[in-house]
Amino acid sequence: MPTCTINDVVCEFEEGQTILEVAHDNDLEIPHYCWHPGLSIVASCRICLAEVAAPNPRNDGKIETIPKLLPACQTPAGEGQIISTKSEKAVESQHSVMELLLINHPVDCPVCDQAGECGLQDYAYRYGNASSRFEEDKIKQPKKDIGPHVLLYSDRCIMCTRCVRFTREVTGTGELMVEGRGATESIDVFPGKALDNPLSANVIDLCPVGALLDKDFLFTQRVWYLKSTPSIDGLTSSGDNLLVEHNQGEVYRLKPRENMDVNRWWITDEVRYGWHFIKNDDRLLMPTLKDGEPFEDDAADEAWEVTEAAALDGLQDAGHIAALISPMLSCEDAWHLGQLVRAIDPHAVLGVGPVPIDGQDQTMLDGFVIRAEKAPNARGVRRVLDALGGNIVDASGFEQALQDDASIAGVLITGNYPSEWVTPSLQQAIDGGRCVVLIDTLPNALVDSADVFLPAATWMEKAGTFENATGRLQSFQQSVRPKRWCKGESQIAMDLLARLRGETAAAFCDDQTRKVMSENGLTEMVRDVHHPPAQDIQAESDMHLIVL
């Protein structure tokens, strides 16, 4: 492979790569603002200018320094090149660029949401000057509400145009433009056209400064307090890779996690903001018995003891039972629930819960696909239930089985959907004097009629594996502890199974469960599962915190 030298480090590269791409692949920092691997190259910010020396074929291949600085983001890497962003000439250029960028910037870092993860802040510290020579009045730009999720603080914008290129090259909606010329130019929306496309909030992640901000996250938390846990989209079948950012047990935002095989650098607004149901005020947090007195908050252990015993007794007494396993659950949840149900009734009917579909799949200009299927693991649940064998049906088949088979006297239902999901036909099929055990998160039509209700944890509050629309198995980690007294479905099933067998309940472990599943025919649960790169990522800050 050809090689070049970047800041005294010899780097191999492939033909066609730019200097900045080679540096990026070799973990070498070259400052940049306008460049992004998913967007076209415009070379407008000029902070990546580098001094380049290259063999001159007209002078017997002698290494000669090119007189002018070249943009690293746009200049192809060449065999034998010697590139420096630390030479006197390159450093002077970096200082000049930073000085120009900061001339009209308000320098309002203490009140800016981007503080702590701001490219302008970082580069001002590393490549800027300690003081400003600018004494004239700064040009003031207005704050603009440009869409349902995004605020534009024009004062802070450095005109990298990443956001404009995103709406033209990725979504194809073209809501954003550059208005004006020179020092007064600014980003804006076209008249009467808000930034309102299915991927609109990705411009917040793309913005290297604090110009485009998230309305939902605005002024809620300082980023250096946040921890980021790798996760997977738990709302649709896309399997998009996420970072769940949280502090002290509270989730504050979701951000995309780069994965070129799945979602590249993007996530949909639906996924980014659809998680709020986990902290709804009406979320169900305490086990209950039908017609029983509500348990007090300080009696959670007693509540679980009583309701689990009632659930197990009711299902055992029923004899022949059926279970509806939600496609919102993980493969591990489906495995443990299936094991429980088959231990109670070897001939139990197992069904995959309703799979919500909204329209059709939509493909963006760059190939990103928005999935119409709004369930993260319909294929994974089906895979696990098929491995258990027996009578496996879909949601409509489950309803039909309840209507046709009067001997089914007990029903285990799981939900965990982000909104109302119980259809009148399902409710009608379940009714009829059967013992109903419901494991769910939010109020719905079955909660009041269920004999036993057990509160479940959401996907952020547990670990597991999802299989997306393309058949890719991906594990996700627990980001925060379950709310109040909720438990994961796997843990509930393991507790009930231990009670059934007269054993001591074990704590759920996703790695151990995948191993057991692999030993029982599901070898792909060990062989083919894609795992995230790290457990927790603590945001770093240059700010030193002093306890007074």
Account of the 3D structure:
With 548 residues, this protein is of the alpha+beta class. It folds into 3 domains: 95 residues, Ubiquitin-like (UB roll) (Roll); 117 residues, Alpha-Beta Plaits, CATH 3.30.70; 240 residues, Rossmann fold (3-Layer(aba) Sandwich). It has a 7-stranded mixed sheet with strand order 15-23-22-21-16-17-20. Strands 1, 2, 3, 4, 5 and 6 form a 6-stranded mixed sheet that branches. It has a 4-stranded antiparallel sheet with strand order 14-13-12-26. A hairpin with a 6-residue loop joins strand 9 and strand 10. Helix 2 crosses helix 3, helix 7 crosses helix 12 and helix 8 packs parallel to helix 12. The longest helix is centred in the middle third of the chain and has 19 residues. The radius of gyration is 28 Å and the shape is elongated. The model has no long low-confidence stretch (mean pLDDT 93).
